[in-house]
Design brief:
The chain is built from eleven helices and 14 strands. By secondary structure, it is α/β, with parallel strands linked by helices. It has a single domain, classed as TIM Barrel (Alpha-Beta Barrel), CATH 3.20.20.140. Helix 2 runs parallel beside helix 3, helix 2 packs across helix 11 and helix 8 packs across helix 9. It binds zinc ion. The site of zinc ion (ZN) has 6 residues, from loops.
Amino acid sequence: MGDTTAGLVCGHHHLYSALARGMPAPPAQPVDFRSILEQVWWRLDTALDLEMLRWSAMLGALEALQCGTTAIIDHHESPNAIEGSLDVIAAACAEVGVRVSCAYGVTDRHGPDGARRGLAENERYLRAGGRGMVGIHAAFTCSDDTLTAAAGLAAELGAGMHIHVAEGVDDVGAGQRLEHLAAEDWLLVHCVHLDRPLPGTIAHNPRSNMNNAVGYAAPTRWENQVVLGTDGIGADMLEEARLAYVALRAFDVRESPDTVWSWLEAGYRFFPEARDDRVVWSYEHADSAWHVAFTPGVRALHVTAADGEVLLRDGLPTRVDAAEVRAKAAEQAARLFARL
Ligand SMILES: [Zn+2]
């Protein structure tokens, strides 16, 4: 028992959504998953430029570090600022001191040229040595040709694919359409309505699934390895784990916190070096799944990277000024909201 753990890994994030909090209400009330995408996220992502993205990623990385999360698997879309966007996210995370895996979510929502540019951004970033995966938004917004091209690039580069799978009922065909493409190095996000097994790791995001009313993903029904993600709602992995635990218990009362903690542990498959980061917490049993599951409000006090550099001291980042990051992010949020 102790107050220290390794760095935590967020298995699925959208750093571009950090500025979305407080955005103006959409023109029409969303009534289902599809209209939530259309009214909220697809309006937001088209309004992003690289300067907004930089401060959104800085804020997201800062908030991750302050929650003891030292590694993020990010999934990004900014259809009017595609080229160079993954470099902007990677640089922002590096500045704060958080590890990141980037992917650009390819989609046919903006026509064949949008899909081509998205794929090119993945290829450009990965070939230049960037850490990441090839991204696809989701099967239901892509043609079979686009899915095949992206899967081919992922296989060629050995990068794996980061893709939303059967999050809502709109994407129930994903299993059938991806069956012949998916591989063990794929990251399959959500899988709420998946109708058949696919190879890869499942990223489970219970808070997001509840928020979008898409249903419970029941990740224990599959043999796949499972990681926990936040789907853009911060990067507080202990908070997500506590919620994942009660959601799992509501589904099967025989389950234990150990199952959910194995999902946190599985994140090290993507970021082995985060095991050597050190987080000191505000609670003396922070390394016990059974303690943390029933202890809200456990806070990260200090974070030390594997190489010995102190990144967070007494809850404050050492490399950046938290107040300045928040102020700059607020300026960019105001610009973003004015465009919506
Ligand atoms: Zn997502």
